[in-house]
Design goal:
By secondary structure, the protein is mainly β. It has two domains: about 90 residues, Ubiquitin-like (UB roll); about 130 residues, Protein Transport Mog1p, Chain A (3-Layer(aba) Sandwich). The protein contains four helices and 18 strands. Strands 1, 2, 3, 4, 5, 6, 7 and 8 form an eight-stranded mixed beta sheet that branches. Strands 11-12-13-17-16-15-14 form a seven-stranded antiparallel beta sheet, sandwiched between helices. A three-stranded antiparallel beta sheet has the order 9-10-18. It is elongated, with a radius of gyration of 23 Å. The N terminus is likely disordered.
């Protein structure tokens, strides 16, 4: 990746290309020759945004501020992925849960645009306006993965629509697709010693689309134990 500078113009930004001489005849603008990228892919904190028009002038990429007004922390990582024609702003977010008595240190990587609504040492909740992840663990002696999973699903008032066994971070786990009156989600529970680690991904039912589960797949793949 090649690090690039990012400049932000005002809402009324005018792209001054070859045929734009008339627009600058009686103004303080200076006519320039620049390259127009008609569809620059932009990734912000791990989330791919809609393609944006951009001009490239003397090694600097210029974007209209109307396209990025909602972006924050522009002083963080800014990189241009030339191979994939993508501007990357910010980065994903690493979150973890543990305790002095836990069997391990449990970690996930999530969308950097999500915000926390619950933060404790062993229980985290991050979300955007319609989807999120609940990440927590508890130590339970004398329980099995099947019985713990059944209890967790019952406690949240969810109805299972599909269940599967899998391996996460080289540990035995179960994944449950579920529905509640207001949400659709997937629950992954990992057993590590006497610890049961839960990844509860949820989406508001009115806004749910099948592709939302792609986000959970990325989160689930990032799970690791240290």
């Amino acid at each position: 990746m090649i690090t690039k500078k990012l400049a932000v113009f005002g809402v009324s930004l005018v792209f001054l290309l070859g045929s734009a001489a008339g627009a600058v005849a009686n103004s303080k603008f200076q006519e320039i020759k620049a390259a127009l990228n008609p569809a620059l892919n932009v990734e912000l904190n791990g989330e791919l945004l809609a393609p944006m028009k951009a001009i490239i002038y003397e090694g600097t990429t210029y974007l209209p501020v109307r396209n990025i007004a909602s972006m924050a922390a522009l002083s963080s990582k800014i990189e241009y992925d030339q191979k994939n024609n993508k501007l990357v702003l910010g980065s994903k977010k690493s979150i973890n849960v543990s305790s002095p008595s836990s069997e391990g240190f449990y970690q996930l990587i999530i969308n950097g645009n999500w915000h926390p609504s619950l933060l404790t040492r062993n229980h985290l909740l991050y979300s955007n306006s319609y989807m999120g992840i609940e990440f927590y663990f508890e130590s339970v002696e004398g329980s099995s993965l099947d019985s713990y999973t059944a209890s967790a699903l019952k406690a949240m008032g969810g109805k299972s629509t599909h269940q599967a066994e899998l391996t996460l971070a080289k540990q035995k786990a179960k994944e449950i697709s579920y529905e509640t009156p207001g949400s659709v989600g997937k629950l992954a529970i990992v057993k590590y010693g006497s610890d049961y680690i839960t990844l509860n991904f949820f989406v508001s039912k009115p806004q749910f689309k099948a592709s939302d589960f792609d986000e959970f797949e990325k989160i689930k793949t990032s799970f690791n134990i240290q």
